[in-house]
Design a protein that fits this description.
The chain is an alpha/beta fold. The protein contains 14 helices and 8 strands. The longest helix is centred in the C-terminal third of the chain and has 32 residues.
C-alpha cells in the first residue's frame, strides 16, 4: 500500500519503522496519549489494525524548512533514563518520544554506511537521518518541542545528530559501575539486554586501544561483558565531552539525581534553557514513586536501594571481579579512565 501524499506532511503520522532491506518506511498514526504512555515506540505500542502505510524511500520527499525544536536523551541502559524522560515530560507543551524503532535501525546501518557492504551511501544515510528525525520531532498540538530518548545502542548517533540539528542539545545519562552491575545482575533479562550490544561496544573499544588479548568477547564472563559495555559508554561519553560539540552534551549521573535531585534538575534546566517552573514540577512529579517503564506499579527510591543492596550481596564476587577488570584496562589505557 502506497501512502497518500498528505500523510507525509501530517505530524500525526510518525516514521515508525525503517525497513533497510526493502528500502521503505512505515508511517503510523499515533496520538499524543499513545506517545506519552509508551516506554518503547516499537511494536508494543501498535493496535491490532494500526492506521498507516509503507512508503518507498525513493518516494519520500526531502524534509525542508526549519526543523522543530528538538533535544536528545542518550544513556547506557538500565540507568534511570525512562524516569528522567518522564520528568522531562513535566515541561509544558513538550512531547517526549521514547526509543523510536526507526532511530535504532538508523544506528544499526550507521557503521556500514558508505562501505561496499553497506545498504546506504554515507550521503544517503545522512539524508535519511535528517529527514527521519526531523519527521519524528514534529510535535502534535499543543506541544511545541520534542525530546527523543534513544535506545542505548544508539549512542553512536550523538555526534551526527548534534551536527545535523544545530539547535539541539543532548543529555547523556549513566551511573557508576558498581550500581550499574548490581542493577543488571539482579535480572537475567537485563544482563541479556546489555550483552546483546557487547560486540558493537567491544569493537568501539578495540578501535581506540588496538589489539588486546583481554578484549576478546569469548574470554569474558557475563559480568565482565556487562562491565565492558559500561566502560565503552563511559569512554565514549568522555570523548564526546572533549570534542567539538562537548558544550552541547550534559552528563547526568543517575545516582546523583536520586541523592540530590534539585541541583541535577537545575543543571538540566540550564542546559535546555528551561526555567525554574520545570524544576519545581519535576521535583514533585509522581514518577519518582513509580516504576517508569510500567507506571501502574509503585517503585520508590528506597525500593531500588533495597534491591541493589540485595543484588550486591548475592553477586559480590562477580561484581568485584568485573570492577577489577575495568580498573586494569583503565590503568593500561588512560584514555578509558
Amino acid at each position: 500500500m502506497t501512502a497518500p501524499v498528505p500523510m507525509l506532511h501530517d505530524a500525526a503520522f510518525m516514521p515508525f519503522r525503517l525497513d533497510a532491506v526493502g528500502r521503505r518506511m512505515l508511517f503510523v498514526r499515533l496520538d499524543r496519549a499513545q506517545r506519552a504512555r509508551a516506554a518503547f515506540l516499537d511494536e508494543r505500542v501498535l493496535s491490532e489494525k494500526p492506521d498507516g502505510a509503507w512508503v518507498p524511500l525513493d518516494a519520500l520527499p526531502p524534509l525542508t524548512g526549519a526543523p522543530p525544536e528538538c533535544h536528545f536523551l542518550f544513556h547506557i541502559g538500565h540507568c534511570g533514563s525512562t524516569l528522567l524522560s518522564r520528568l522531562l515530560a513535566e515541561h509544558p507543551q513538550t512531547q517526549v518520544l521514547r526509543e523510536p524503532l526507526t532511530l535504532r535501525v538508523l544506528a544499526e546501518q550507521q557503521r556500514d554506511a558508505g562501505l561496499p557492504e553497506g545498504r546506504f551511501s554515507r550521503e544517503a544515510w545522512q539524508a535519511l537521518l535528517h529527514d527521519t528525525v526531523g519527521r519524528l520531532a514534529r510535535p502534535l498540538a499543543p506541544d511545541q518541542r520534542c525530546i527523543i530518548k534513544a535506545t542505548s545502542s544508539c549512542n553512536g548517533l550523538v555526534s551526527p545528530l548534534l551536527a545535523t540539528f544545530p539547535g539541539a542539545r543532548a543529555i547523556f545519562m549513566d551511573m557508576p559501575l558498581r550500581p550499574y552491575l548490581a542493577t543488571l545482575l539482579k535480572s537475567p533479562d537485563s544482563v541479556r539486554d546489555a550483552i546483546t550490544t557487547a560486540p558493537a561496544r567491544l569493537a568501539w573499544l578495540r578501535e581506540r586501544v588496538g589489539e588486546d588479548a583481554t578484549l576478546h568477547l569469548h574470554r569474558l564472563t557475563l559480568p565482565q561483558q556487562c562491565a565492558m559495555v559500561w566502560l565503552a559508554e563511559h569512554a565514549r561519553r568522555k570523548a564526546l565531552q572533549a570534542g567539538p560539540e562537548g558544550d552541547r552534551l550534559l552528563h547526568v549521573d543517575f545516582e546523583r539525581l536520586l541523592e540530590t535531585p534539585e541541583p541535577t534538575l537545575q543543571a538540566i534546566a540550564g542546559h535546555l534553557g528551561w526555567g525554574a517552573a520545570w524544576v519545581s514540577a519535576a521535583k514533585t512529579s509522581s514518577a519518582w514513586a513509580r516504576y517508569s517503564k510500567a507506571p501502574q506499579h509503585g517503585y520508590s527510591v528506597d525500593d531500588r536501594r533495597h534491591d541493589l543492596e540485595r543484588s550486591f550481596g548475592l553477586h559480590q564476587e562477580a561484581i568485584v571481579d568485573a570492577e577489577a577488570f575495568v580498573t586494569t584496562l583503565q590503568q593500561r589505557y588512560p584514555s578509558l579512565a
